[in-house]
Amino acid sequence: MLTVWGRRSSFNVQKVMWLLGELGIAHRHIQAGGEFGGLDTPDFRAMNPTGRVPVIDDNGTIVWESHAILRYLAARHGGGQFWSDHPGERSQIDRWMDWSQTALQPDFLIGVFWGFYRTPEPQRDWPAIRDKIARCAGHFQLLDRVLADRPFLCGNSLTLADIPAGTALYRYFELDIARPPVRNVEAWYRRLQERPAYREGVMVPFGELRGRLDY
Ligand SMILES: N[C@@H](CCC(=O)N[C@@H](CS)C(=O)NCC(=O)O)C(=O)O
Questions:
Q1: Ligand 1 centroid to residue 53 C-alpha, Å
Q2: pTM above 0.90, yes or no
């Protein structure tokens, strides 16, 4: 049986839990990292030398790095549903995954979620937070334009393209921050919330992380 390591409160773990739910793969889940610890043991480091979650073991195939896991799961278990076999179509999906990891995630997860929510109030760097909130507004306005003529980032159905950026939506809309109206993104978020795998994997209350700078 497939095993996944990683605490449910981890953004990167949530991407994987969401896809596992979409694929309907029976799995064993081991909470690890944060308050659960376990990332420094020799056994864990032998699986993932970086000592981070998520990690999966799929009958002896060990994969770490959330996007590598998403691609592995889609290729191994998705039958072309979430990640196309066609190189051109696949690149459409890949570019949104890479954009999320290199543009949206640093500005939102590091800049806003860590800078604002996870940082105790007296330590908050407000000019930096305001800058990151504005950058995120720009990112979501960009997605809003893309979603003007399609229900999901790469067309009519959910693909891996939606997973990294879509995982950010729950926290983005829950945080007490200024947001521009982004009607198409809001409609996309409602569509994602209709999916049980999204609700269970991603919509995990995160109050325990408020003002907490250590993992
Ligand atoms: N680029 C990696 C980042 C992995 C990462 O930084 N994971 C965090 C959780 S989101 C972690 O393991 N932190 C240590 C901890 O939770 O104890 C990925 O996408 O998987």
A1: 5
A2: yes
